[in-house]
Amino acid sequence: MNNLYEKSGVNLSEARELERKISSIGDNIGRFAGINGNIVSTCDGIGTKIIPLYKRGLYKTIAQDLAAANLNDLAASGAKVLGFLDYIAVYKLESERISQIILELANILKEHSCPLLGGETAETPDLITEGNIDISGFVIGEGNGVNSINLKEGDLIIGLKSSGVHANGFSLVRKFYTDGMLSEKEFEETLKPSYIYYSKVLKLWEKGLIKAAANITGGGIYSNLKRVVPEFELDPNSFEKIPVLEKLKELTGEEEFYQVFNPGIGFCLAAESFSEDIKQICGEFSPRIIGRVL
After folding, report:
1. Given its phi and psi angles, is residue 150 left (phi above 0), alpha (psi -120 to 50 degrees) or beta?
2. Could you tell me which residues are beta bridge partners of residue 63?
3. Any idea which fold 156-293 has?
4. What pLDDT digit, counting tens, does each position of 79-120 carry?
5. Which of 32, 49, 172, 261 could hold 76 in an S-S bridge, CB 3.0 to 4.6 Å?
6. Which residues contact 98 (CB under 8 A, 6 or more apart)?
């Protein structure tokens, strides 16, 4: 493996080591959402994708990526969202630009029956460099908060297509772009907003149609799916072929690609059957069988 992601500044092995060292805290370490009784919560940001988004004034995409990062993690647990909080750190507060992000976020969350409860904005000039910001989201949900239910050999793994890169691997994406390995058009393709699967997946949980769900974020499809399905096999030929992702696969090599990016599949479901209800509810995300539980 070329270890290009580590050379771009992100060390996945060190991230796994951190998870190992803090695993004694409790069973929530490694889950998509933290669970305490019937309270379920998530916390996530959008990484360094925010750098080109903010510089290009793509405020709605920032808002959608942030909502997706948290709501999709909540969807993996089957909980119903109660509210959302945000945290924004800036070099210098620009009220016109920051207000656009927050207003867009409130509108997007409203589409998923999620109120924006509030948040925090901090000017941190010794921490954030000039012209940049960082953003995080926090979701509060309610429900049983499951990891997986009664999985058995032969259950199906169903994939929902991604819009493209979503918000992962951007330290490497940006390096490829600045090094001239991605064209301007290809780079713009990587900046497409992430899909939000939450509302559709919640319906599947409520109808008892699925046994597990995984948000395919940083670390790729295999490591994220393993968080809820211990043993499985996937057919890479069944993944959605998205041109910019295929280009990234060429640049990274297949092994590293699957450890960093989603392969055209942004969310996975485990189910006993590929029912008509699943096909209809998730139709806009082109659901397809991509593997099986072992």
Report:
1. left
2. none
3. Phosphoribosyl-aminoimidazole Synthetase; Chain A, domain 2 (3.90.650)
4. 999 999 999 999 999 999 999 999 999 999 999 999 999 999
5. 32
6. 88, 90, 121, 133
